[in-house]
């Protein structure tokens, strides 16, 4: 399921860096640790967006001027989401960069009808290579239209689906159909305008900083419905629990699929 956490912005004009996924990852991890439940502290099958709201750009980053700011959180595990929300709402305020946010309410995104082919947009950068200390491999550029790009995403998705214990071996073997096809028109338009769809981003794991290349562009994914559902709720690619690889279905009206969300944790 995918929920939208709506915060009241207490200091309009406050800012965060352009890329602030690592700040959100630190906040989320802190809330999970606060709850004290080890099975949720170590859980990694979740994904989240960047902060959404009315913004203006400066050298400092993104300044938020809307009265409210939204964060999308997704996971196939409802007890995990309930656990996180219960502990989050015990705080009267959380600080993310230069923003002072008060948790206000939660909305549930209605389930999308899944097909064997869906066009997605990236609402956070998509990372295809893992990283290790003092290794620049993850910064390497791989053209999105190549089989290598699609194959790396297939391998990481199958590994994560196997590790989730949500699928048996026979099911995983049936998910051999998998192809990522980028929107070539979009990429060509950005290239012609000398704009980037691939950048280097920081990510932190156990206090170690890594640099990774993230991609942001629309694409069509050809895969089984179960695979589509998994990446929609757990993200696609590497470092998904760090806020990378969050997707949304293209050409959908997000305001038409919002329900009230009730959560509880015992």
UniProtKB/TrEMBL annotation:
GO terms for biological process: defense response to virus. The keyword RNA-binding applies. Keywords: Antiviral defense, RNA-binding. Residues 115-249 form the CRISPR associated protein Cas6 C-terminal domain. InterPro entries: Cas_Cas6_C, CRISPR-assoc_prot_Cas6, CRISPR-assoc_prot_Cas6_N_sf. Signal peptide: none annotated. The keyword RNA-binding applies. It comes from the Bacteria. Gene3D superfamilies: 3.30.70.1890, 3.30.70.1900. Belongs to the CRISPR-associated protein Cas6/Cse3/CasE family. This is CRISPR-associated protein Cas6.
């Amino acid at each position: 399921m995918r929920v939208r956490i709506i915060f009241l912005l207490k200091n309009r004009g406050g800012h965060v860096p352009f890329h602030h996924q690592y700040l959100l990852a630190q906040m989320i991890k802190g809330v999970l640790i606060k709850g004290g439940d080890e099975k949720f502290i170590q859980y990694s099958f979740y994904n989240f967006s960047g902060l959404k709201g009315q913004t203006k750009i400066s050298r400092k980053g993104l300044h938020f001027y809307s009265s409210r700011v939204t964060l999308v959180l997704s996971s196939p595990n409802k007890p995990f989401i309930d656990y996180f929300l219960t502990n989050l709402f015990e705080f009267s305020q959380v600080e993310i960069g230069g923003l002072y946010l008060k948790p206000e309410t939660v909305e549930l995104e209605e389930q999308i009808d899944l097909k064997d082919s869906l066009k997605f947009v990236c609402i956070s950068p998509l990372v295809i290579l893992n990283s290790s200390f003092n290794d620049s491999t993850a910064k390497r550029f791989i053209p999105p239209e190549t089989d290598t790009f699609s194959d790396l995403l297939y391998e990481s998705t199958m590994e994560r689906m196997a590790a989730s214990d949500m699928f048996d071996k026979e099911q995983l073997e049936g998910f051999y159909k998998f192809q990522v096809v980028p929107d070539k028109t979009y990429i060509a338009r950005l290239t012609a305008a000398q704009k980037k769809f691939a950048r280097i981003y920081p990510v932190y794991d156990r206090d170690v900083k890594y640099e990774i290349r993230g991609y942001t562009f629309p694409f069509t994914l050809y895969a089984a419905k179960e695979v589509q559902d998994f990446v929609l709720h757990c993200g696609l690619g590497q470092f998904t629990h760090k806020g990378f690889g969050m997707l949304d279905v293209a050409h959908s009206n997000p305001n038409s699929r919002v329900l009230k969300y009730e959560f509880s944790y015992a």
